[in-house]
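Here is the promised in-class demo. Please do not try to memorize the tokens; focus on the logic of going from shape to residues.
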């Protein structure tokens, strides 16, 4: 798919029906969730994924304070994007509840409250800096967004493989369909913005090369991030190879990004340095009696 303008990308995005409709969610055989075993080591990973999705509200608010978020096309995209991401978090939470993981009525507020104060200070600083750079920073935001969406989709695909749970698979395949549409929006707009000038390319490349972090690392904490990254990508070498193909190679094809491999490098580095944080063996089989 190739687009000539942001408006065209937005029209394409808005023409797509939602995958996770109320009817789709209601038709999931939730009651069957406990029939299948689920590796408890993956529970904190699912919780991390859920919380990243729920915090989209916060990222959305942050972006609204920047020239990127004030762009009428991008802000229109973000309205629907924000709603879709929050649904992803809610549906993952419903699955966790089915497995027996308890969450209180105010779980979403609790996730937001736990975001460290330092994160907010840091974000205000970045917002001020991006305002200085003006709309030239839009290409960087869009490239970062594309990378986060691609790695998220890849993480869900890994979760499907690792968990081998049919109900979770049904949920995650639907989420991945929506994540792929998000990727396409960010990636297509990034490409259009990067094509405009070399300064935008250099800035975006510099930021991604030096400041790339896995989504959620700043807001949910390094320990939870490492656990999830190692759990998903550090247990089999083929997982990193796939990440390389699906994310790094695609990013390298953006204007000014030839041979850019900071995303794979960072993930690989985390997996090598922190391999011990993810337990090597699964606990004895547990089916639907999950704890907490
Ligand atoms: Fe999502
Ligand atoms: Fe997404």
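The designed amino acids, position by position:
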């Amino acid at each position: 798919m190739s687009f000539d303008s942001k408006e065209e990308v937005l029209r394409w995005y808005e023409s797509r029906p939602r995958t996770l409709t109320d009817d789709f969610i209601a038709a999931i055989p939730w009651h069957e969730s406990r029939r299948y075993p689920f590796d408890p080591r993956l529970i904190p990973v699912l919780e991390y994924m859920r919380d990243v999705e729920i915090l989209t509200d916060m990222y959305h608010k942050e972006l609204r304070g920047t020239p990127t978020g004030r762009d009428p096309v991008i802000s229109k995209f973000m309205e629907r994007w924000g709603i879709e991401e929050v649904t992803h978090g809610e549906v993952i939470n419903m699955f966790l509840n089915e497995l027996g993981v308890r969450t209180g009525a105010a779980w979403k507020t609790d996730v937001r409250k736990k975001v460290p104060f330092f994160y907010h200070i840091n974000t205000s600083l970045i917002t001020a800096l991006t305002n200085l750079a003006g709309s030239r920073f839009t290409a960087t935001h869009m490239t970062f967004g594309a990378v986060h969406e691609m790695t998220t989709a890849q993480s869900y695909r890994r979760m499907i493989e690792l968990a081998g749970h049919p109900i979770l698979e049904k949920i995650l395949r639907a989420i991945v369909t929506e994540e792929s549409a998000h990727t396409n929006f960010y990636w297509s707009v990034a490409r259009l913005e990067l094509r405009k000038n070399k300064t935008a390319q250099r800035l975006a490349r510099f930021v991604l090369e030096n400041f790339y972090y896995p989504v959620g690392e700043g807001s949910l904490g390094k320990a939870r991030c490492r656990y999830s990254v190692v759990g998903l990508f550090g247990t089999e070498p083929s997982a990193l190879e796939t990440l390389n193909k699906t994310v790094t190679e695609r990013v390298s094809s953006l204007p000014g990004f030839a041979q850019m491999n900071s995303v794979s490098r960072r993930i690989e580095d985390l997996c090598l340095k922190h391999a011990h944080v993810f337990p090597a063996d699964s606990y004895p089989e547990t089916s639907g009696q999950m704890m907490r």
